[in-house]
């Protein structure tokens, strides 16, 4: 499912090449006509839709045309794709807690795997930065290798939010790769 936001000039249409069987008009400044076509260009749906209406089509479409039959521009937001969307409302209070401590570290990784973060039940998130100018840092668990690790190319970083508290290991494509680490803790 994808959201599509389009503005259609007066008395014209726009098309989107998208595959699916579901259409919902989430929002619009006016009623619009939706024409869905299958892979052969045959219409499988042709209907006027107003805000909040949705339809599941029995045949797959591959293109959707949104027609503005009014004399003014129309802006609309649609959900197109497979599946269905159920509208619901949530009420209440959301409380977001923040970490109380930030830690930073620098470590050097060689061509054998090395633990770069200890297990820590208070860790909430962390950032790893490969500061090397040319070599790849591979990140993973205790069995990390160049073949199974997540590669961080030279200068690349990764953020793990709501991170697990387990150990993080790394191995380099060359010796002497410097990794910078920033972590947030409770």
Could you walk me through the main structural features you see in this protein, from its secondary elements to its overall organization?
This protein has 186 residues and is mainly β. 0% of the residues lie in helices and 55% in strands. The protein folds into two domains: 2-81, Jelly Rolls, CATH 2.60.120; 101-185, Jelly Rolls (Sandwich), CATH 2.60.120.770. It contains no helices and 16 strands. The strands form four sheets. It has a four-stranded antiparallel beta sheet with strand order 1-8-3-6, with no helix packed on it. The chain is elongated, with a radius of gyration of 25 Å.
Summarize the structure.
With 186 residues, the protein is mainly beta. Helix content is 0%, strand content 55%.
Question: What attributes characterize this protein structure?
Answer:
single chain, 186 residues, mainly beta, Jelly Rolls, 2 domains, 4-stranded antiparallel sheet, 16 strands, 0% helix, elongated
- Largest sheet, described in full? 4 strands, antiparallel
CATH architecture label name of the largest domain: Sandwich
What helical percentage do the residues reach?
Answer: under 10%
Radius of gyration: 25 Å
Got a strand count?
A: 16
- CATH class category label of the largest domain: Mainly Beta
How far from one another are the termini?
36 Å
For the largest sheet, list the strands in their spatial order.
1-8-3-6
Instruction: Give the overall form.
Output: elongated
Give the SSE string.
Answer: EEEEEEEEEEEEEEEE
Poorly predicted runs:
none
| Overall pLDDT | 90
Estimated share of beta-strand residues: over 45%
- Report the total helices: 0
**What is the SS-derived class?**
mainly beta
Could you please say which CATH topology of the largest domain applies here? Jelly Rolls
Number of domains: 2
């Amino acid at each position: 499912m994808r959201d599509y936001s389009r503005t259609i000039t007066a008395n014209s249409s726009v098309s989107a090449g998208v595959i699916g069987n579901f259409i919902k008009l989430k929002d619009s400044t006016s009623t619009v006509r939706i024409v869905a076509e299958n892979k052969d260009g045959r219409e499988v749906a042709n209907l006027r839709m107003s805000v909040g209406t949705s339809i599941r089509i029995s045949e797959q479409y591959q293109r959707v045309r949104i027609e503005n039959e009014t004399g003014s521009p129309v802006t609309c937001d649609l959900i197109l794709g497979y599946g269905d969307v159920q509208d619901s409302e949530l009420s209440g209070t959301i409380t977001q807690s923040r970490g109380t401590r930030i830690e930073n570290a620098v470590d050097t990784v060689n061509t054998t795997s090395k633990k770069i973060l200890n297990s820590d039940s208070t860790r909430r998130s962390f950032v790893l930065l490969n500061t090397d100018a040319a070599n790849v840092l591979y990140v993973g668990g205790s069995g990390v290798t160049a073949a199974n690790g997540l590669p961080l190319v030279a200068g690349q970083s990764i953020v793990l939010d709501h991170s697990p508290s387990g150990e993080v290991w790394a191995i380099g494509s060359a010796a002497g790769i410097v990794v910078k680490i920033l972590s947030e803790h409770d």
